[in-house]
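A.,

Following up on our hallway conversation. Structure tokens first:
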């Protein structure tokens, strides 16, 4: 079940569901959500499994700084369109705290995993340090087609090997 705020994260834990966190939340916010979820799971008498929390992230393996910037600009334009669609006439933005607060460009740059394989590995490691064990990726920055396939192939070949030995331990069932 998707959730973003602490009260909704706790409700997901209380109901016994796995948790899905959105792609715009900062690593610090993700860490706070995981801590709240873990506390809710354990308060319900269950054992916390790190793989019961999924975090979505957009990725794009870029060949240059210019290509990375182009992908970030495409993602930002899409985010601004989403925010406009979610904005009520009174200025209230629907869609949770990660959509409603903060400068869209800053939120975009902090959450997107765009850049060289090493830059992406560092962003993934930052999420790992926040408690993330399960990342769902989407190629939103590629623009699709051949560029998207090339980015995914590079992600598999050049980013994933950084994490092969660091799979989180599953909780005993």
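Then the amino acids I'd put at each of the 173 positions:
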């Amino acid at each position: 079940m998707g959730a973003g705020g602490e009260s909704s994260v706790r409700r997901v834990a209380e109901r016994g569901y796995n948790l899905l966190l959105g792609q715009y939340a900062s690593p610090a916010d993700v860490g706070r959500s995981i801590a709240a979820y873990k506390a809710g799971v354990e308060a319900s008498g269950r054992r916390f499994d790190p793989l019961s929390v999924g975090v979505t992230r957009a990725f794009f393996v870029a060949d240059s700084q210019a290509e990375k910037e182009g992908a970030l600009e495409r993602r930002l334009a899409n985010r601004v369109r989403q925010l406009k669609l979610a904005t009520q006439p009174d200025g209230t933005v629907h869609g949770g705290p990660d959509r409603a607060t903060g400068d869209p460009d800053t939120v975009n740059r902090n959450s997107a995993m765009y850049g060289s394989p090493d830059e992406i590995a560092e962003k993934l490691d930052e999420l790992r340090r926040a408690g993330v064990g399960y990342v769902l990726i989407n190629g939103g920055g590629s623009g699709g087609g051949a560029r998207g396939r090339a980015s995914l192939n590079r992600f598999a070949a050049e980013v994933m090997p950084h994490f092969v030995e660091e799979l989180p331990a599953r909780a005993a069932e």
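The first helix runs from residue 6 to 14. Curious whether your intuition agrees with the design.

B.
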